[in-house]
Recover the amino acids of this structure.
C-alpha cells in the first residue's frame, strides 16, 4: 500500500473510531427545532405548512404526543412558540408571527419544499432554490457548505471542466451567471483558480438560485441568478466558530457592540504554502496541468522551476446598525485573493545561470452601504450604494526566448439601487425600483521583445427602471409574479424591455404546475484571446459590449414544469427552451479551427430536468436526470450550419443518498454520470503542414464522465454551547480518469500531438471545526 492510500485509510479509521467513542448511549432530548417537529406533523396528519423562513428561525418546542387531534397539537405549538397557526384548508396551514412585521421582497418567499435533497436546501413558491449554509446537511463529496459546489447537485446545473469558475446552467457559459454578494456583482467566483468556491459560507444566511422566471429587480445574468445574502438581522448575542481542512483554515464571529450595533467578520486562508497535503497535490495537478507551470516543470534539461509558492485568502465583514425600529443601516466589505509565483532558471552552454520570476494574482474587492426604512406597516424602501473591483495580473518571463509578457484585466463596477415595496393587502405586493451602474474594463498587454503595448479601456453607463407585482391567493394554491425591467444604455442610445413572469397553480391536493418565462440582457462577458494567456491558468478576461464586434447578449427563455409532492415523495419534470443571441466565438473557448476567429452568433438549448426525491425520517435519496440539446449558430462559421456547443452535455444523471444516524452522524454517497464533452478531431486525410486541418466542429465526444463520491460528518458537544464537528470525504473514490477536454497541437516536425486534460483523481479531505 503506497503512502497516499495509507494516509487515507488512517483518517477513515480515525474518523469512525472517534464516532464510535462519541456515539450517544442515552435517548435524545424531546426538545427539537420547530422545523423538525413540523416535518413529523406533516407526515402524521398528511398536511403541509406554509411559512417564511424567518418565522420559525431559532424556534424550538417539545414533540407533541402522537395520539392528539391536529387542532390540539396546533394549540400547544402556538403556546410554546408564540406563533399563529392559521388553518387555510383541510391540508394547508399557514404559520405567522403573532405581531406580523413588514417583510421585504426577499422575505416574502415562503418554503414550498423543505429538505430538498438534504437539509438546508429548499424551494420556494416561485420555483427558486434556497440554500441555508447554517442548516446544511451533507452531500456526496462535500463536508462543508461550499456554495458553488452545492448548487451543482441541482438538476440542470453542472461544470463541464469540474470547476466552480465555469458553471454551466442550462448550457450557458459561466459569465452568463449573475453572482451577487449581498447585492454586489462579483467577477471572481473561485479559489485555487476554480476548484473551491471563493465565498466563505459561514456568514451567509441564504443563497437564492433561479434558472428562469427571475425577479425584475435582477439585471444581467442571462443564464441564472446566484444571489448570496448575508445575515441582515442583529442577533444580540456573541457567536462564532473556527476550523480547518486539508486546504484552508477559517474563522468567523458575530460580535454585538451594543443593542443596536453588531459586527460580523469572517476570514479564510489556505494552508497549502505551509503544509503539502494529499488534497493540495491533487488540486495542484488538476489546475496546472498543461499550463505554463507544468509545461516548464516537464520541459528540457535547460529549464528548471524552483521556489514555487501558491496561496489564497478571503475576508468579509458586515456592520449592522439599527438606527431606530424603522431605520436600518448596513455596511459590508469583502476581499477575495489568489496568487501564484514561481522562479524560472536556465543554464546556457557555458553553464551561465539566469533566473527570473513569473506569477499571477487575482483579486475581487467589493463594498456596499445600504439604508432601509419602514415608512408604515405596508410601505418600505431601501437604497444601496456599491462598488466592485476585479483585477487579474500576470507576468510571464520566457528566458529561453528572452521575452517578458505582462497582462492585466481590470473591472470597476459602481452603482446605486433604490427599491420600494408596497403591500397592497395580504395577498398582493407591489415592488418598484431604479438602478444606475457604471462599468469600466481595462485590458493591458505589454511585451518587451519585440516591443509591443496595448491598453484598451471601455466604459459603459446604464439606467434601469423596474416594476413587479406578486399575487398569492389566501389558499396559497395560486402564485403569480409578473414584472417588467427597462434598461437604457446611454452609450448606444438603446432601450431594452425585459418582461418576466412566474406562475404556479396547485391542484388535486398534491400536484403543481409551474410556468416561467423571461427576457434578459447583459453587457459584460468573458473572452479568450489565447489559451496560454495569464500563464494558461486563468485565460478568460472580462470585456464590455460595444454593440458591434461584441454585442449586448440577449436571452429569452420559457419553461413549464409539473410537480408531485406527498408524504416526502417529490417528483418534478420541467421542460425548457432557451435562446441566447450576441455571443462571440472568443467567449466559447474553442480549441479547434475557430480558436482565433472573431464572429458573433447565438446558441439554442432545449431540454428537460427531471428529479425524484424520496425522504424518510433519517434517509433522503434522489435521482436526477437532465437531457438537453445545445447548438451554436454563427453565420460565418461552419457555412452557417448549427454545430454542438462546447457546453453541450446531452445526458446527465445523478443517483445519491444521505443518511443520518440520530442528530450527530451523517453519511452521503453519490454517483454522477454524464455524456462526454464534445471535441473536434483532425482530418486524417489532409496533409499536415503549417496548420491542423480539422474535421466537422464538435462532432466527436470524449468518453463518458463517471464519478463516485463519499462523505461523512460527526457532530458532538464539547462544553456548554460549544459544539464540534469532524468530517471526512473522498472525491472520485474509484479514481477514474475522466477526460474533460481534448485538443491538438502542431509540432515543429509537422506532426500532431493530442493533449488530454483530465479530472481530479481520488481526492481525500478531512475537516474539523468548532462553533460557539
Amino acid at each position: 500500500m503506497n503512502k497516499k492510500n495509507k494516509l487515507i485509510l488512517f483518517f477513515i479509521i480515525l474518523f469512525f473510531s472517534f464516532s464510535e467513542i462519541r456515539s450517544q448511549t442515552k435517548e435524545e432530548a424531546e426538545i427539537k427545532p420547530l422545523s423538525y417537529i413540523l416535518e413529523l406533523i406533516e407526515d402524521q396528519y398528511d398536511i403541509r405548512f406554509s411559512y417564511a423562513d424567518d418565522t420559525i428561525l431559532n424556534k424550538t418546542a417539545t414533540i407533541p404526543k402522537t395520539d392528539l387531534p391536529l387542532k390540539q397539537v396546533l394549540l400547544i405549538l402556538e403556546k410554546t412558540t408564540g406563533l399563529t397557526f392559521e388553518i387555510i384548508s383541510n391540508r394547508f396551514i399557514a404559520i405567522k408571527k403573532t405581531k406580523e412585521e413588514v417583510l421585504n421582497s426577499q422575505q416574502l418567499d415562503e418554503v414550498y419544499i423543505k429538505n430538498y435533497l438534504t437539509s438546508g436546501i429548499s424551494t420556494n413558491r416561485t420555483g427558486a432554490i434556497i440554500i441555508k449554509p447554517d442548516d446544511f446537511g451533507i452531500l456526496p463529496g462535500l463536508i462543508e457548505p461550499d456554495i458553488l459546489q452545492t448548487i451543482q447537485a441541482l438538476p440542470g446545473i453542472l461544470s463541464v471542466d469540474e470547476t466552480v469558475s465555469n458553471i454551466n446552467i442550462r448550457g450557458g457559459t459561466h459569465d452568463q451567471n449573475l453572482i451577487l454578494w449581498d447585492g454586489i456583482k462579483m467577477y471572481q467566483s473561485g479559489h485555487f483558480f476554480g476548484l473551491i468556491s471563493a465565498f466563505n459560507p459561514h456568514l451567509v444566511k441564504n443563497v437564492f438560485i433561479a434558472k428562469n422566471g427571475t425577479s425584475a429587480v435582477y439585471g444581467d445574468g442571462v443564464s441564472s441568478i446566484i444571489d448570496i445574502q448575508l445575515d441582515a438581522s442583529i442577533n444580540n448575542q456573541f457567536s462564532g466558530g473556527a476550523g480547518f481542512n486539508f486546504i484552508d483554515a477559517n474563522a468567523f464571529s458575530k460580535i454585538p457592540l451594543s443593542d443596536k450595533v453588531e459586527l460580523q467578520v469572517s476570514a479564510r486562508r489556505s494552508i497549502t504554502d505551509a503544509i503539502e497535503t494529499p488534497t493540495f497535490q491533487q488540486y495542484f495537478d488538476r489546475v496546472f496541468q498543461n499550463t505554463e507551470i507544468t509545461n516548464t516543470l516537464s520541459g528540457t534539461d535547460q529549464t528548471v522551476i524552483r521556489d514555487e509558492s501558491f496561496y489564497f485568502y478571503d475576508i468579509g465583514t458586515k456592520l449592522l446598525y439599527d438606527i431606530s425600529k424603522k431605520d436600518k443601516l448596513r455596511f459590508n466589505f469583502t476581499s477575495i485573493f489568489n496568487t501564484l509565483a514561481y522562479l524560472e532558471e536556465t543554464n546556457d552552454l557555458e553553464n551561465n545561470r539566469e533566473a527570473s520570476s513569473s506569477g499571477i494574482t487575482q483579486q475581487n474587492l467589493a463594498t456596499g452601504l445600504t439604508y432601509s426604512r419602514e415608512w408604515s406597516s405596508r410601505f418600505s424602501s431601501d437604497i444601496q450604494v456599491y462598488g466592485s473591483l476585479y483585477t487579474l495580473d500576470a507576468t510571464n518571463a520566457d528566458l529561453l526566448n528572452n521575452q517578458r509578457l505582462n497582462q492585466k484585466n481590470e473591472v470597476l463596477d459602481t452603482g446605486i439601487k433604490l427599491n420600494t415595496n408596497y403591500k397592497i393587502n395580504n395577498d398582493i405586493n407591489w415592488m418598484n425600483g431604479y438602478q444606475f451602474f457604471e462599468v469600466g474594463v481595462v485590458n493591458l498587454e505589454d511585451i518587451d521583445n519585440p516591443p509591443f503595448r496595448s491598453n484598451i479601456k471601455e466604459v459603459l453607463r446604464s439606467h434601469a427602471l423596474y416594476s413587479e407585482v406578486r399575487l398569492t391567493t389566501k389558499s396559497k394554491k395560486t402564485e403569480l409574479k409578473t414584472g417588467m425591467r427597462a434598461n437604457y444604455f446611454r452609450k448606444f442610445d438603446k432601450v431594452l424591455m425585459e418582461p418576466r413572469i412566474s406562475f404556479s397553480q396547485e391542484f388535486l391536493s398534491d400536484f403543481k404546475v409551474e410556468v416561467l418565462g423571461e427576457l434578459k440582457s447583459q453587457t459584460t462577458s468573458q473572452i479568450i484571446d489565447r489559451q496560454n494567456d495569464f500563464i494558461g491558468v486563468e485565460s478568460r478576461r472580462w470585456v464590455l459590449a460595444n454593440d458591434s464586434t461584441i454585442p449586448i447578449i440577449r436571452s429569452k427563455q420559457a419553461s413549464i414544469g409539473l410537480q408531485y409532492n406527498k408524504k416526502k415523495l417529490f417528483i418534478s419534470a420541467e421542460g425548457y427552451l432557451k435562446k441566447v443571441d450576441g455571443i462571440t466565438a472568443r467567449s466559447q473557448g474553442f480549441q479547434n479551427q475557430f480558436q482565433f476567429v472573431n464572429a458573433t452568433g447565438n446558441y439554442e438549448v432545449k431540454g428537460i430536468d427531471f428529479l425524484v426525491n424520496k425522504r424518510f425520517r433519517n434517509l433522503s435519496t434522489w435521482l436526477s436526470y437532465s437531457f438537453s440539446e445545445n447548438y451554436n449558430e454563427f453565420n460565418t462559421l461552419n457555412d452557417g450550419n448549427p454545430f454542438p456547443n462546447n457546453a453541450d452535455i446531452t445526458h446527465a444523471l445523478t443517483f445519491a443518498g444521505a443518511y443520518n444516524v440520530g442528530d450527530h452522524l451523517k453519511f452521503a454517497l453519490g454517483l454522477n454520470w454524464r455524456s462526454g464533452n464534445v471535441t473536434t478531431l483532425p482530418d486524417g486525410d489532409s496533409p499536415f503542414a503549417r496548420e491542423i486541418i480539422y474535421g466537422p466542429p464538435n462532432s466527436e465526444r470524449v468518453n463518458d464522465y463517471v464519478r463516485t463520491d463519499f462523505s461523512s460528518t460527526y457532530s458532538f458537544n464539547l462544553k456548554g454551547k460549544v459544539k464540534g464537528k469532524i468530517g471526512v470525504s473522498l472525491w472520485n473514490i474509484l479514481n477514474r480518469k475522466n477526460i474533460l477536454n481534448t485538443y491538438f497541437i502542431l509540432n515543429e516536425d509537422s506532426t500532431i500531438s493530442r493533449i488530454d486534460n483530465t479530472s481530479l483523481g481520488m481526492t481525500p479531505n478531512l475537516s474539523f471545526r468548532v462553533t460557539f
Remarks:
- The domain at 122-771 is CATH 2.40.170.20 (Maltoporin; Chain A).
- Helices lie at 3-22, 34-45, 70-81, 147-150, 278-287, 292-297.
- Confidence is low (pLDDT under 50) at residues 9-29, 100-108.
- The first strand starts at residue 31 and ends at 33.
